[in-house]
């Protein structure tokens, strides 16, 4: 099909519009300009060249000029300028519209992927469009920093560019959700998630990253994502150290917290007497935490608490006196340590009321 014939399709009504406007010396109406913009959008969607289309507009204007009386030709140039400008505006707007539509579709897909709000079969079909193959197993890493992040933020763009430059297309998806940075990767490619965690930690000025376990199928992404979120929440409540947390290493905490009432009873029964201490229970709970975290080594626990060994020993003796349990006795240690973990999980005693 000849170029002129292709362009003619997008000039429908254009000549008559020029004749009508020049016949009365008026400017183009809003409806006429909107019609030109719509034709410009259609032409862009058909992947036609703008230069050829502008030439076609000018050629058509010359033919119209020959049909006009001399006085009517005065306003032709201004009318053509209006028409071509509106057409070019529509032409340029079409790709921007397509990009926004693509971004909206991607955001909707990510929401459905992470929250399971769509038919899993349909979700797997849509995933192919964004580079994922949900028939396999996947794991999800979630990073947080001192501020929320969006898709257009330099931090998010920089991490995505680094991951793609390092690994290319490995059927991974990088996105943001609720201000967090997200990486979804096949379960047999832990190096991708490890690299993402390293870059995210650095790019967020020491932010924290959690990695969920690998789970199969479309629903596996949701499961892994929830594990990563829970790991971040646990890290906050338990004051866990380390920039990267793995849900597989934290499975004991959900088990302990599963029966909340039983845990609350254990905490209250075992640690409740510590409220009678001067300064309340919290300093002594912190002492027990440091003591257990240091492997029950008094010197190391004292260093972590910035205390002398003598002061630490006094606190441990006070705990023995109030609770009638000995942190150094293996028979008592498990109960005390479990109660301390429970207190941190339940934010006891602050939330005990």
TrEMBL record:
It comes from the Bacteria. Coiled coil: none annotated. Residues 116-234 form the CdaR GGDEF-like domain. Residues 284-340 form the PucR C-terminal helix-turn-helix domain. InterPro entries: CdaR-like_regulators, CdaR_GGDEF, PucR_C-HTH_dom, PucR_C-HTH_sf. Pfam families: GGDEF_2 (PF17853), HTH_30 (PF13556). Belongs to the CdaR family. This is Helix-turn-helix domain-containing protein. The lineage of its organism: Bacteria, Bacillati, Actinomycetota, Actinomycetes, Kitasatosporales.
């Amino acid at each position: 099909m000849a170029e002129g014939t292709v362009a003619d399709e997008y000039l429908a009504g254009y000549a008559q519009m020029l004749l009508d406007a020049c016949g009365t010396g008026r400017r183009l109406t809003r409806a006429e300009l909107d019609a030109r913009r719509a034709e410009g959008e259609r032409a862009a969607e058909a992947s036609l060249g703008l230069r050829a289309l502008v030439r076609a507009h000018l050629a058509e204007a010359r033919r119209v000029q020959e049909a006009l009386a001399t006085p009517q030709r005065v306003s032709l140039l201004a009318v053509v300028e209006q028409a071509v400008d509106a057409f070019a505006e529509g032409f340029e707007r079409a790709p921007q519209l397509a990009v926004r539509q693509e971004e909206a579709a991607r955001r909707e897909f990510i929401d459905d992927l992470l929250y399971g709000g769509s038919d899993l079969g349909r979700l797997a079909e849509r995933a192919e469009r964004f580079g994922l193959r949900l028939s396999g197993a996947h794991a999800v890493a979630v990073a947080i920093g001192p501020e929320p992040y969006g898709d257009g933020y330099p931090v998010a763009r920089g991490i995505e560019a680094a991951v793609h430059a390092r690994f290319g297309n490995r059927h991974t998806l990088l996105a943001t959700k609720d201000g967090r940075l997200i990486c979804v990767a096949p379960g047999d490619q832990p190096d991708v998630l490890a690299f993402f965690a390293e870059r995210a930690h650095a790019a967020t000025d020491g932010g924290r990253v959690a990695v969920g376990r690998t789970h199969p199928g479309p629903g596996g992404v949701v499961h892994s994502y929830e594990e990563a979120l829970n790991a971040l929440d646990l890290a906050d409540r338990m004051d866990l150290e380390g920039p990267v947390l793995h849900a597989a290493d934290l499975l004991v905490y959900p088990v302990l917290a599963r029966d909340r009432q039983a845990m609350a009873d254990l905490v209250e029964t075992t640690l409740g007497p510590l409220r009678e201490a001067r300064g309340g229970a919290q300093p002594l709970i912190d002492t027990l935490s440091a003591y257990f975290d240091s492997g029950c080594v008094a010197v190391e626990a004292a260093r972590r608490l910035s205390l002398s060994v003598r002061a630490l020993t006094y606190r441990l003796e006070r705990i023995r006196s109030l609770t009638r349990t000995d942190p150094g006795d293996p028979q008592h240690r498990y109960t005390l340590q479990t109660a301390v973990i429970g207190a941190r999980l339940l934010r006891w005693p602050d939330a005990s009321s």
